[in-house]
Design goal:
This protein is an alpha+beta fold. It has 4 helices and 8 strands, in the order H-H-E-E-E-E-E-H-H-E-E-E. 41% of the residues are buried. The chain binds a DNA duplex (13 and 13 nucleotides) through strand 3, strand 4 and helix 4.
DNA sequence: GATAAGATTAACT
DNA sequence: GTTAATCTTATCC
């Protein structure tokens, strides 16, 4: 019985991420709010966070890494939805995106902030002892908290050690959209989404 | 081969 | 509000 349930659960999980292949970044960004990321560390510690803030990037978007076409860095963004695009920036930070769309489309959703649910002590340790919202209320803070770096570049999010767990969609009333943060182009487009009144949102 | 900019953060004043 | 830290990637010689 357990085997059957696990097997079915796995299939359902895969199908749940399948929808990302048929979704634009702009559709997926608000949809991913409230969903969860489960990270298994090398020592088997389980961490889980709820996604509370996202931004949409795609090929038609001047601010996107995929805007000027596929390169060695951005090729994961041009792969199938449901994988992880990781990039390194400002000489010291990693940021993570959930890729959306079919193969050949360069689109993804930047994970900007999360709310720790499980493994909070380990998350705090990863963040050099910080506690409270400053642990995960920024894109590079989130990757540091979950130990995401180039080891997980292109990772399939249906698999350990990093799984995306789909939850029911939030209501429109729970979601606020705004311009994105930290970009120099396409500044006025409403491509940032966050959960209303959640203390772990970055700003 | 060299250079400039960057989907940021934390520690300052 | 300002700034240093720090290095990959893209772009331009």
């Amino acid at each position: 019985m357990v085997t059957v349930r696990q097997s079915r659960g796995c299939i359902i999980n895969n199908m749940q991420l399948d929808f990302l292949k048929n979704m634009s970044a702009l559709e997926a960004a608000p949809r991913l709010l409230g969903c969860e990321l489960e990270r298994t560390l090398d020592d088997s510690t389980i961490l889980r966070v709820k996604i509370v803030e996202t931004e949409a990037y795609d090929q038609t978007d001047e601010a996107s890494h995929s805007f000027r076409g596929e390169t060695e860095r951005t090729k994961v963004m041009f792969g199938e939805g449901g994988h992880l695009y990781v990039y390194f920036t400002y000489g010291m930070h990693y940021c993570a995106n959930i890729v959306t769309g079919k193969k050949g489309e360069g689109a993804g959703v930047l994970l900007r902030a999360g709310e720790p649910l499980v493994g909070i002590e380990a998350i705090s340790a990863n963040r050099r002892g910080m506690t409270g919202k400053v642990m995960t209320n920024g894109p590079a803070k989130l990757t540091e908290a979950l130990k995401i770096d180039f080891n997980l570049r292109g990772h399939d999010l249906t698999q350990a050690p990093l799984k995306l767990i789909i939850k029911p969609p939030l209501t429109p009333e729970q979601i606020i959209s705004s311009p994105r943060i930290g970009i120099s182009r396409a500044k006025s487009e409403l491509r940032r989404f966050y959960i209303a009144d959640n203390p772990y949102v970055s700003k």
